[in-house]
């Protein structure tokens, strides 16, 4: 096997400290953040994520086991990945999730353990999430209106989601609400969602709709671009002020004077943040994605189940990172039409 330090351009080396390496891709972007999908299943049927009849879920043996996922996280943590966000599908539909979270929480080098959830099953676990040191939770919530919630998600679960929101805020967990902006569906919810930031320390982030719904794009043209979303918010809140964005932020961030929380807008379809992207994804079936829009670049499950050593896993990861597309547009050009569901990608 070739030297696992190759290609050398991927590393910035440090003398005998906690981590020997920091991974850089072929465009000199650090890779420090893993989004780890623990399941492809979901208990909602959001129309922008999957068809009404759902998607064909993978049999259990085709999903990574918790032990396999833990091993991957340990290998990546040794390479400098310091943040892991648990995603799905919906993470809490997989049995024994909290046992897995406890094991991740003690991995050396993992400084930030976070989660994305739809909130339907989350409230009973919030206290333990806080005790484990979970830093932040992204809560998917596209509307505060129960009828519209039912229409968008095809499930009547808004009360459970709002209970989770209250529990997260009470526990002091940094809470980000993710709202996909959809033409003709929830435009009237932009104002009420922004209003949540007045009295609560919550970050409300509006996201351009993407074509990951199991069918392809709903619109020939994206009408609600990131700039139009900002213009709509500013029309309702003329004193909306731009904030400095933290490193690697996917959102352009704002605050309304006097409000406790913040507002963000994510150009997920326009892909304006690719130049500073520090994240990779591992799907529930063990496919590595170095870009949300790529078709998968490495079958990690096959490596694990063919008894690959940690050194061989490391070498395979480094080769994948050395051929990362410069942005989501290049990644999309290298594949067929995007038709998969976001539930199979890992959020």
UniProtKB/TrEMBL annotation:
Pathway: Cofactor biosynthesis; molybdopterin biosynthesis. It is an enzyme of class 4 (lyase). [4Fe-4S] cluster 1 binds at residues 42, 46, 49. PROSITE patterns: MOAA_NIFB_PQQE (PS01305), RADICAL_SAM (PS51918). The keyword Nucleotide-binding applies. It catalyses: GTP + AH2 + S-adenosyl-L-methionine = (8S)-3',8-cyclo-7,8-dihydroguanosine 5'-triphosphate + 5'-deoxyadenosine + L-methionine + A + H(+). S-adenosyl-L-methionine binds at residues 48, 89, 140, 210. Residues 26-247 form the Radical SAM core domain. Pfam families: Mob_synth_C, Radical_SAM. Its cofactor is [4Fe-4S] cluster. GTP binds at residues 35, 85, 116, 176, 279-281. Its EC number is 4.1.99.22. Keywords: 4Fe-4S, GTP-binding, Iron, Iron-sulfur, Lyase, Metal-binding, Molybdenum cofactor biosynthesis, Nucleotide-binding, S-adenosyl-L-methionine. GO terms for molecular function: 4 iron, 4 sulfur cluster binding; cyclic pyranopterin monophosphate synthase activity; GTP 3',8'-cyclase activity; GTP binding; metal ion binding; S-adenosyl-L-methionine binding. [4Fe-4S] cluster 2 binds at residues 274, 277, 291. Binds 2 [4Fe-4S] clusters. Binds 1 [4Fe-4S] cluster coordinated with 3 cysteines and an exchangeable S-adenosyl-L-methionine and 1 [4Fe-4S] cluster coordinated with 3 cysteines and the GTP-derived substrate. InterPro entries: Aldolase_TIM, Elp3/MiaA/NifB-like_rSAM, MoaA, MoaA-like, MoaA_NifB_PqqE_Fe-S-bd_CS, MoaA_twitch, MoCo_biosynth_MoaA/MoaC, rSAM. One of its GO terms (biological process) is Mo-molybdopterin cofactor biosynthetic process. Catalyzes the cyclization of GTP to (8S)-3',8-cyclo-7,8-dihydroguanosine 5'-triphosphate. Monomer and homodimer. Belongs to the radical SAM superfamily. MoaA family. This is GTP 3',8-cyclase. The lineage of its organism: Bacteria, Pseudomonadati, Bacteroidota, Cytophagia, Cytophagales. The gene is moaA.
